[in-house]
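Why do we care about 3D structure at all? Because function follows from shape, and shape follows, mostly, from sequence. That is the central idea of this module. The next example makes it concrete: a single protein chain, its amino acid sequence, and then its structure expressed as tokens.
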Amino acid sequence: MRKLAPHLDAEAEVVRLEKREADDHEGVAVMPGAAELLKAIPDGRWCVVTSGTRYLATSRLKLANLPIPQVLVSADDVSKGKPDPEPYLMGAKLLGVNPSQCLVIEDAPGGPRAAHAGGMKAIGITSTYPASALHQADAVVKRLAQIRVKSSDGAGSLTVSVE
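And the structure:
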């Protein structure tokens, strides 16, 4: 922006564009199965890691009537984004969980790469990219409803399966 429009205040323009994107509800829909999947995971055991800003993420979660997690890692919080593992490693740290015990659900090719670089497993969902672009994921699904989460013991362990 600074090169193409040096007469503009770049920071102010970024804020203006972010607000416009967050306020644009056209074509924005809750991914089927999202609410059910989140209800199956105990509070404090999941987080959102996004390449977007915190403002955009929380705006979209509110619009979708989905809970805002206790841990949300956004582009505002990291110096390197996906496919670098920094955002996912920060999420694991803030959740107090060993990265090897984490499962990432991701709709973009950089997500599984970042998850694996951080020692995590990844499920790709073909909502944005085709399965061929998500080939680095450990499993690929078409719908969130294909992911099942169950409490596997009294110690709070969770088991995830893919149909």
